[in-house]
Write a structure and sequence with these properties.
The protein is of the alpha/beta class. Helices cover 37% and strands 14% of the residues. Belongs to the short-chain dehydrogenases/reductases (SDR) family.
């Protein structure tokens, strides 16, 4: 397979939620593959250091303010993106949030915060970008889901609902926009340490519990997502749409042993 299938030179990618965390890793991977970037955050000033890093890679970078819970903010970002580069080829719908609580303690406001950000925000950002892509009959939309797009975990009711919704939304949009040359896929990370969940990884017992259930025996490292995001953004995935690609070390296999395994089984 030709390496050019993964070359993003000359393409423009919008990556939402790039002030920190996995959004920066995803954006960095696209830049290294050749893409110019539009970086977004609710506070534009937080993007300046990362934008300079992208420019140091030899790529163009534009910082734009975006609150995915605000319709006017989405519309304004899309207009500025079009003004900055003309055509947008790739969207990585990464902005998200979480509230960790037992289900009986989740408030109306908790639910709205998570669903409005992760699900409604993903839809309306995708819609705004699709309106820019349709006239060019080309686009790659990558919605960021989670292993919770296919699994449920206690204490994550709103989050699981939102990420399951992102998976279903991805399939619907793939069907809607395929005739316009736009592919829509869901990139679903498993357990990765991020700013949102770092406190969990300070608990040694919980980390051991988690790792025991991951067939590859470690949580995800941020650069484990690099190949997947470049693949879904590139020509290499041109006949793939409506799919959910799990990058989870295998935890979605079920992560439960049906028999006892001898301690020396791997030796």
């Amino acid at each position: 397979m030709s390496g050019s299938l993964f070359d993003l030179t000359g393409q423009v990618a919008v990556v939402t939620g790039t002030s920190r965390g996995l959004g920066q890793y995803l954006a960095r991977a696209l830049a290294r593959a050749g893409a110019d970037l539009i970086l977004t955050s609710r506070r534009k000033e937080t993007l300046a250091p990362f934008a300079e890093e992208i420019r140091d890679l030899g790529r163009r970078a534009v910082e734009l303010e975006l609150d995915v819970r605000d319709a006017e903010s989405i519309t304004a970002m899309a207009a500025q993106a079009a003004e900055s580069f003309g055509q947008v080829h790739i969207l990585v719908n990464n902005a998200g949030c979480n509230v960790r609580k037992p289900a009986v303690d989740v408030t109306w406001e908790d639910w709205n915060l998570v669903l409005d950000t992760n699900l409604r925000g993903s839809f309306f950002v995708a819609q705004a970008m699709a309106r820019l892509m349709i006239p060019h009959h080309y686009g790659r939309i990558i919605n960021i889901g989670s292993v919770t797009s296919v699994f449920g975990y206690a204490g994550l009711g709103p989050y699981c609902a939102s990420r399951g919704g992102v998976r279903q939304l991805t399939m619907s949009l793939a069907d809607d926009w395929g005739r316009h040359g736009i592919t829509v896929n869901c990139l679903a990370p498993g357990w990765f340490r991020t700013a949102q969940n770092s406190v969990l990884y300070e608990n040694k017992e919980w980390v051991e519990y988690l790792v025991d259930r991951i067939p590859l025996k470690r949580p995800g490292a941020p650069d484990d997502l690099d190949g997947a995001v470049v693949f879904l953004a590139s020509e290499a995935s041109r006949y793939i749409t409506g799919q959910t690609l799990l990058i989870d070390g295998g935890i979605s296999t079920g992560a439960m042993r049906a028999t006892m395994r001898p301690a020396d089984a791997d030796e």
